Amino acid sequence: MNEKKRKGKKDTELRLISELMRNSRRSDRELAKALKVSQPTVTRIRTRLEEEGTIKEYTMIPDFGKLGVEIVAVTFGKWSPDRVKDPESTVFKEAKQFITKHPSIVFGSAGNGLGKGTMVVTLHKTYTDYVEFITEARRKAVGLLTDVESFIISVKLDAMPRHFSLGNLMEYLNPASHDRIE
After folding, report:
1. Alpha-carbon distance 72 to 181, whole Å?
2. pLDDT band at residue 159, thresholds of 50, 70 and 90?
3. What span, in angstroms and rounded, lies between the C-alpha atoms of 149 and 77?
4. CA–CA separation, 162 and 153 (whole Å)
């Protein structure tokens, strides 16, 4: 396959992903019309993207404030150098289980930045719920993490210039939308 065909195919895949992020409830026929390709092409690409794991799930994003969520917290921690060397330790296993099972955690990952090595994004109905969560998290990770800090966001504030939306991510993936930034 030559470079131009490969690029075109990649472009169609990204455009399909963008359209699905905009509204995953649309039929393959509607998506084909938006992409200006055939419906079987959309079905074939979507199926392949699902099978290879590029498309992990279909979902919707609610207005968290209307569901009673008041706070989104992004919490960062620094790995304790002596404890990180032993992923088989009890404290490491308990911390990992806490992250994978706790209902308030919507995203968690190791990473690097701000002098930290891990982070979680959590949702809380009240500030008290957040305090209880962070207290439990620190207890579970005692000796494993140090320097735990959170950035707290109130979802009830009207001051958010850009709310969380996969549509925003769709704009990032769609190079044509980058030209619109003024």
Report:
1. 27
2. low
3. 6
4. 13
- CATH number (domain holding residue 48): 1.10.10.10
**Residue 93 belongs to some domain of the structure:** yes
Distance CA 135, CA 55 (A): 35
What's the pLDDT at 167?
66
- For residue 108, report the phi and psi dihedrals to the nearest 5 degrees: -150, 140
CA 130 from centroid of its chain's CA atoms: 20
Provide the pLDDT confidence category of residue 175 given band limits of 50, 70 and 90: low
Which residues are bridge partners to 118 per DSSP?
77, 110
CA distance 58 to 13: 16
d(CA 142, CA 5): 53
Tens of pLDDT, residue by residue over 56-104, are: 888 877 778 888 889 999 999 888 776 556 667 777 777 778 888 888 9
150 with 75, same domain? Answer: yes
Strands 105-113 and 145-154: unpaired
